[in-house]
């Protein structure tokens, strides 16, 4: 088992709950030091973080960036999208949740952790950091198109997890007004890790009396678009054809070659093999896009 996965799940087998049910892990060495409030203060005060890596949100939606991103002047021209630390802290103190997006893009310890987890799970992994004021809910009930490991760093959060998505696969991520029956209601304490399977509707409320911070590690899964794209690539991979055959006979010959190649590929391919190739591609994409 990879170090990253072990720090999330401890000695509990992930296979027992993967895609089946939500679960709380209590690892001996949780990754609570990957990104701390001290680190966050340093990032904010550096004045280098830009939108859309930072958002302020409530259950009603996203706060207008104009409220916390005053324009700067560089070489006589206005530049937008740089959050002002004092404005961000003021809104966060006024019951707005601070959401840092794709921490894996810009914070080295999180980048390395996500890369290890992506290799272990053979999928793309992204990281999001939430700072939620006491007694507030940052997002409405929603479904994620990813499996989520929520690492509680400070404070505590009450989670409400409902049913998974429709079994026929016809569903959309994000907000939902039909979450289904409640499957799990639990308080996540600092050092614990909550696993939420892909598509399970959920919401979370910070416990009263303390600011909650948690790191969400989202494990992206393939969809039919990924399968189609990779199959299309495999059907032409290694086949060299002239871009503009000169005669009808040449064009027919090119069509025959293309079909022969496709038949050979399909004869050696089945569903599990195609999905395995997609997962390999997703893990490789994670590595090259960090």
UniProtKB/TrEMBL annotation:
This is JmjC domain-containing protein. It comes from Streptomyces ehimensis. It comes from the Bacteria. Gene3D superfamilies: Cupin. Keywords: Iron, Metal-binding. Its cofactor is Fe(2+). The keyword NAD does not apply. InterPro entries: JmjC_dom (IPR003347), NO66-like (IPR039994). Residues 92-238 form the JmjC domain. Pfam families: JmjC_2.
């Amino acid at each position: 088992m990879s170090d990253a996965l072990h720090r999330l799940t401890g000695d509990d087998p992930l296979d027992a709950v993967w895609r089946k049910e939500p679960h709380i892990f209590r690892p001996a060495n949780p990754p609570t030091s990957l990104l701390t409030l001290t680190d966050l203060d340093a990032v904010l005060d550096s004045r280098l973080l830009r939108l859309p890596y930072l958002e302020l949100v409530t259950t009603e939606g996203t706060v207008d960036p104009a409220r916390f991103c005053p324009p700067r002047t560089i070489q006589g021209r206005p530049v937008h999208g740089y959050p002002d630390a004092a404005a961000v802290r003021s809104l966060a103190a006024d019951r707005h949740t601070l959401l840092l997006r794709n921490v894996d893009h810009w914070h080295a310890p999180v980048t390395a952790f996500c890369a290890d987890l992506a290799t272990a799970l053979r999928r793309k992994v992204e990281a999001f950091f939430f700072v939620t004021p006491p007694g507030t809910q940052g997002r409405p009930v929603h479904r994620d198109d990813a499996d989520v490991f929520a690492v509680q760093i400070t404070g505590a959060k009450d989670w409400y997890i409902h049913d998974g998505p429709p079994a026929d696969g016809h569903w959309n991520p994000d907000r939902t007004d039909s979450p289904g029956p409640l499957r799990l209601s639990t308080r996540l304490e600092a050092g614990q890790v909550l696993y939420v399977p892909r598509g399970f509707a959920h919401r979370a409320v910070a416990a009263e009396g303390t600011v909650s911070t948690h790191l969400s590690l989202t494990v992206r899964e393939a969809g039919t678009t990924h399968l189609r794209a990779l199959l299309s690539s495999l059907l032409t991979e290694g086949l060299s054809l002239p871009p503009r055959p000169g005669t009808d006979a040449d064009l027919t010959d090119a069509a025959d070659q293309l079909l022969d190649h496709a038949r050979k590929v399909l004869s050696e391919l089945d569903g599990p093999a195609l999905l395995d190739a997609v997962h390999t591609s997703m893990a490789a994409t994670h590595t090259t896009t960090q």
